[in-house]
Amino acid sequence: MASVDAAELVRRLDAVLVKAGPAAPFVLFLASFLEYVFPPVPGDAVAVLGGWYATHGGLSWAVLFSALSIGALAGTAFDWRLGRWLGARLEDRAEAGRLDRARLERFERAYRRWGGLLLVANRFLPGIRAFFFLAAGAAGIPLWKVLLYGGISAVLWNVLLLGAGALLAKNEMELFALFARYDTVAWIVLLAGSAIAILVWLRRRAKRQRA
Predict the structure, then answer these.
(1) Torsion from C-alpha of 95, 101, 104, 106, nearest 10 degrees
(2) Rounded Cα gap, residues 110 and 187, in angstroms
(3) 5 falls in which pLDDT band (50, 70, 90)?
(4) How far is residue 13's CA from residue 10's CA, in Å, rounded to a whole number?
(5) In Å, how far are 34, 46, 84, 113 from 43, measured between CA atoms?
(6) 3-class secondary structure for the chain?
(7) Comparing 49 with 66, which gets the higher pLDDT?
(8) Most exposed of 16, 32, 79, 130 (fewest Cβ within 10 Å)?
(9) Is the confidence at residue 3, as pLDDT, over 90?
(10) How far is CA 77 from CA 51, 81, 123, in A?
(11) Could you tell me the pTM of the whole model?
(12) Distance between CA 182 and CA 198 in Å, rounded?
């Protein structure tokens, strides 16, 4: 969510929401949807500014919740459908012998078992959330479960957004900076966790090979 010129980004997005007027809920919906479909879109930044207006009378809390949540669910469903298409292609490659079927089946079993946790956490992980839903579709997790987990994540995020706007920030720039710092910390934790997971996997692989 951070930018080379954060202040300029805030001013531009602020102007978009102000000019949108009655169409502001649609702008919030579109930003939330596109963030799942095309991660470079600064959907989080638009949501943060929407949260500021919702906590200071510019937007209804219910409108913000609905627009962002429905946008997130629409993006979730789009990613899941794309994942189903990808899963079918992987199955075709496995049938043709161009992909290790045993590995594919292990991935599907593991994701069906643990993927729900990632889907609930998705809204709190910047930049990579779309991949969780692609994987859910490829692993064959039912759409209703994906929408349920994604909906829970969106609601929790919106509560955090509104709470920060109401209790922690004095203005929209301060709120934006707060969530930009959150994104930085989240990326650090995510990269560190990924590095640890890779090291553990390499160590276990080495043990199996020695055995």
Answers:
(1) 150
(2) 24
(3) low
(4) 5
(5) 7, 5, 25, 30
(6) CCCCCHHHHHHHHHHHHHHHHHHHHHHHHHHHHHHHHCCCCCHHHHHHHHHHHHHCCCCCHHHHHHHHHHHHHHHHHHHHHHHHHHHHHHHHHHHCCCCCHHHHHHHHHHHHHHHHHHHHHHHHCCCCHHHHHHHHHHHCCCHHHHHHHHHHHHHHHHHHHHHHHHHCCCCHHHHHHHHHHHHHHHHHHHHHHHHHHHHHHHHHHHHHHHC
(7) 66
(8) 16
(9) no
(10) 24, 6, 15
(11) 0.76
(12) 24
| Cβ partners under 8 Å of residue 110, min gap 6 | none
- 87 C-beta neighbours (distance < 10 Å), count: 19
| Average pLDDT rounded to a whole number, residues 61-71 | 85
How far lies 166's CA from each of 55, 57, 163, in Å? 5, 11, 5
Asked if 17 contacts 24 with a C-beta cutoff of 8 angstroms, the reply is yes
Q: Which residue has the tokens 């043990």?
A: 207
Contact 120, 151 (CB under 8 A): no
Whether 90 shows a pLDDT value over 60: the answer reads yes
